[in-house]
Design brief:
This protein is of the alpha/beta class. The protein has a domain of 135 residues: Rossmann fold, CATH 3.40.50.300. 35% of the residues lie in helices and 24% in strands. The chain is built from seven helices and ten strands. The longest helix has 24 residues. It is globular and about 50 Å long. It binds adenosine-5'-triphosphate and magnesium ion. Magnesium ion binds next to helix 1.
Length: 256
């Protein structure tokens, strides 16, 4: 399988001189085309920072990020979904979803069609003319996902997109995301604090340890997704990743 994201000896640092804070050093991770990779780790380890470097929102300090997807002026190669949907309150839902389309080469009709089809995809086909304040938190989160999908990216970076939702909405959106992922064949890198969510969604779970951040462990999840909500194998895998995270936290405390 071709790698769509590959970091090579990636280091990221904030600040300079004595105040310099190195977040990762020589980090090597990859995501293959069509793969769903989840990333868990200690709070503050650098998960959001990693997504931001991959999205080219902050530069590497050393090393590089290689993105290998086709160039197409009518699409974006990468789109990001943030923890809170950050909708613009003065724009209707449809106009919020169309936001990312403003910089790419699509006609006004194509733009309307993309907004319509992505809102349909997230189950909000009738919401285009509503205002953000008229939506629930879960609905707003879906709009954030639609906004990212509207630019038809090959790569979807998701930073704890369901973190603020109640358990029932979260489960529904996880399943919706898996359906969309299957239908659109995107490559996904998904950050979460919730180990069950990581094991439920991922083909692979990466565990990021702290100071400087590095991949402590990687878990391949070779359990059919239909068996993942509560089967014995699923629970065993969840326990295994939890134990890895506890070890990583102990190491990070020791270094403090
Ligand atoms: N712009 C910045 N300037 C300076 N330091 C930063 C900046 N952004 C992040 N950091 C630092 O980088 C480290 C990693 O932050 P990051 O937000 O990536 O962690 P995280 O793993 O996403 O944490 P959480 O799980 O709490 O979201 C933290 O120590 C943070 O203080
Ligand atoms: Mg974060």
């Amino acid at each position: 399988m071709a790698k769509v994201i590959e970091t090579e000896d990636l280091s990221v640092a904030f600040g300079e001189g004595d105040g310099q804070n190195i977040i990762f050093r020589h980090l090597n991770i990859s995501v293959e085309a069509g793969e769903f990779v989840t990333l868990v780790g200690v709070s503050g380890a650098g998960k959001s920072t990693l997504l931001r470097v991959i999205a080219d929102l902050i530069p590497p300090y050393e090393g590089s990020v290689k993105i290998d997807t086709p160039q197409d002026r009518a699409r974006r190669r990468i789109a990001m979904v943030f923890q809170s949907a950050n909708l613009m309150p003065w724009r209707k839902i449809g106009d919020n979803v169309g936001l990312g389309l403003e910089g790419i080469e699509v006609s006004p009709e194509q733009c309307r069609e993309r907004v319509r089809s992505t809102l349909d995809l997230v189950g909000l086909g009738d919401f285009s003319d509503r205002w953000p304040y008229q939506l629930s938190g879960g609905q707003r989160q879906r709009v954030g996902i639609a906004r990212a999908l509207a630019v038809d990216p090959d790569i979807l970076l998701m930073d704890e997109p369901f973190g603020a939702l109640d358990a029932i909405t979260r489960i529904a959106l996880q399943d919706e995301l898996l359906r969309i992922w299957r239908e659109t064949k995107k490559s996904v890198l998904f950050v979460t604090h919730d180990i069950e969510e990581a094991v439920y969604l991922g083909d692979r779970v990466l565990l990021l340890g702290d100071r400087p951040a590095h991949i402590v462990n990687e878990y391949k999840i070779d359990i059919a997704r239909s068996q993942r909500r509560e089967g014995e194998n699923f629970m065993r895998k969840v326990e295994e990743v939890k134990a890895g995270l506890v070890d990583a936290m102990a190491l990070s405390d020791g270094a403090a």
